[in-house]
Structure formats: C-alpha cells, structure tokens
Design goal:
Helix 1 crosses helix 8. Helices cover 26% and strands 28% of the residues. It is globular, with a radius of gyration of 20 Å. The chain is α/β, with parallel strands linked by helices. The protein starts with a strand and ends in an 11-residue tail after the last helix. The chain folds into two domains: 169 residues, Rossmann fold (3-Layer(aba) Sandwich), CATH 3.40.50; 141 residues, Rossmann fold, CATH 3.40.50.2020. Strands 11-10-9-12-13-14-15 form a seven-stranded mixed beta sheet, sandwiched between helices. It has a six-stranded mixed beta sheet with strand order 1-2-5-6-7-8, sandwiched between helices. A two-stranded antiparallel sheet has the order 3-4.
C-alpha cells in the first residue's frame, strides 16, 4: 500500500499484539518486524528489523497492565522510529492508561494524564489514535492531532434485539456517564436511567438512589471502563432491588483488576460485554464475559489517516 509517496507500516508492542495483527490483516499488510526484550536489570530493549525511512508508521500499544512497562515500550518504539527517519509516527493507543488522573482532586495531586501526553509527544509521536478516553478533554492535553474513536457503534448492535422496546432501559452507573448512556439509549430508541452514587474512597462507591423507572425491565449498564467492578456490581444490586429483570453490562475497556472477576461472578449481572482494547488473558475469559473486536474500526481509521481522509465519519457507523 503506497499513497502520496509513503508506504504504511504497522508495528505492535506487547500489550495487544493480537489486535495489531488483526488490524494489519484487514489492511492487507504484514506486521512490522521488531523485537521487544528486557535486559536483566529490567530495562526495555527495542530492535527494529526493517527500514522505516519516510514511512507512515503506526505503533499499536494499549497502556494497560503492566501499565508502566507498556507505556515505556511505546515511548521507546516511537523514539526508535523518529531516529530512523520515519515520515510520520502515529501512536495507536486503544486504551489510554492514566486517563483517570486528569485533574487535581486534592492539593498537590499530579495530573498524570497530561504528563503521559507530554511524554508521548516528546518521544516523537506526530499524532494519536485512541478510543473512549475516560475524560474526553484529555485530547486537549496534546499539542498534536488526536483522533478519538467511540466504542458505542460497536456495542449498540449487540443489543439490536431490544431496539424500540418499552421494557428495555439503558442505565448510567453514575452522573459522569450520563452523556454516554443517553447516546446509547438514543441509538436503541429506549429510555435511560441514572444510578446516583457517592464515592467514599478510591475503588469503593455507595449507591444512593436510582433516577428513572427500571421495575420489570431488562437493563444494560453502560460505562467506559470496568476496573474492580465494585461500582458496577453495587449498581446492579441496587437495580435488582428496584425490580430489574435481566441485567447486562457493557464497557469499552475491561481493566478487570483486583477482585473484578470475583465481583462479577458473584453479582446479579447476567452478562458483561467488553471490547478488546485491552487483551483479555485466558484466565479472565469467563462464561459471563463476551468480547467484541475493535479491529475493523481501528484499521479503517488507520487507512483514513494514511490516506489523509476524514476519521469523523466513523463516529456514527
């Protein structure tokens, strides 16, 4: 593939190589040849085995656990491509770690999401392609172009059977996710409700009230990230107490840290639908979890960036 005199190359870090391979396959390309290893002292070593001079290079790497290792892999790869005279470097970050540290909640707090943005730019990235940032304003932390994709167009078709039904409701797990839930509900032409909660400390929340009618309805709780699943499972329990029938949950990013799997297993949630922005290891693939692929959307976005075409047309597909 060669447009405007530049060829295109897809490289992958270790965080989600399967997604990178699927993207490259969709584009009719081989995955770029590179080795990522560690020295005995833990330092990361990158070796690129092919020329990238003048190429349009896309580095696919989610900054998921182990977050710092995967972040450093991406930074070092970008630096390597910059020093090898790549024509343009796009950091493809399906899941952007540190996104929840986007503001100062207390005195002397860092804004780590901004620091990571600065690191990516300093490493040599010319633009960023990502999906469902926890705080969309993080796009403004960059002084380079950011293409921000959405997971909703991939998740909504899973619930096509409920479209327009009066006995189905989309639920926002907190006030901060209202816009996402409203968009989801509009696409399915159903009502939506809100779980009002109060967070006492990190990863612990207390459900206070349900705003909206859920009695006798099938529900889907819509969020961007499922981490420990404590908030999600508390919300589901409260909804069940209010008379909900089948309860689904869906999210773009399945972090699933700490007690998440145990929480989901013991919850009243019937099924959790996730996207593969974060690789789900075999031990986390339970019967309650369904994973949908983002490969088609990301490969189409890559093709459009490479061809200097609009990416925004993907938002409504």
């Amino acid at each position: 593939m060669n447009v405007h005199g530049k060829d295109i190359k897809i490289f992958a870090g270790n965080s989600n190589k399967e997604l990178a391979v699927a993207m490259a396959t969709n584009l009719g390309l081989p995955l770029g040849k590179a080795d990522i290893e560690k020295f005995s002292d833990g330092e990361i070593a990158i070796t690129i085995h092919e020329s990238v001079r003048g190429s349009d290079v896309f580095v696919v790497q989610s900054t998921s656990a182990p977050v710092n290792d995967h972040l450093m892999e991406m930074l070092i790869m970008c630096d390597a491509f910059k020093r090898a005279s790549a024509g343009r470097i796009t950091a493809v970050i399906p899941y952007y770690g540190y996104a929840r540290q986007d503001r100062k909640n207390r005195p002397r707090d860092p804004i780590s999401a901004k620091l990571v943005a600065d690191l990516i730019t300093a490493a040599g990235a010319d633009r960023v392609l990502t999906m469902d940032l926890h705080a969309p304003q993080i796009q403004g932390f960059f002084n380079i172009p950011v293409d921000h994709l959405y997971g909703t167009p991939i998740l909504v078709p899973f619930f096509e059977q409920f479209k327009g039904r009066d006995d189905f409701c989309v639920v926002s797990p907190d006030v901060g996710s209202v816009k996402r839930a409203r968009t989801f509900a509009e696409k399915l032409n159903v009502t939506f409700a809100i779980v009002d909660k109060r967070r006492q400390k990190a990863n612990v929340s207390e459900v206070v009230n349900i705003v909206g009618e859920v009695d006798g309805k099938d529900l889907v709780i819509v969020d961007d990230v499922i981490d420990t699943a404590g908030t999600l499972c508390n919300a589901a329990a409260a909804l069940k107490e209010k008379g909900a029938k089948t309860i689904y949950a869906c999210a773009t990013h399945g972090v699933l840290s700490g007690p998440a799997l145990e929480n989901i297993k013991n919850s009243v949630i019937d099924e959790v639908i996730l996207l593969d922005t974060i690789k789900l290891p075999p031990e986390k693939c339970t019967e309650k979890i369904t994973v949908l692929s983002v490969a088609n959307v990301f490969s189409e976005a890559v093709a459009r960036i490479y061809g200097d075409k609009s990416v925004s047309v993907l938002f409504g597909q």
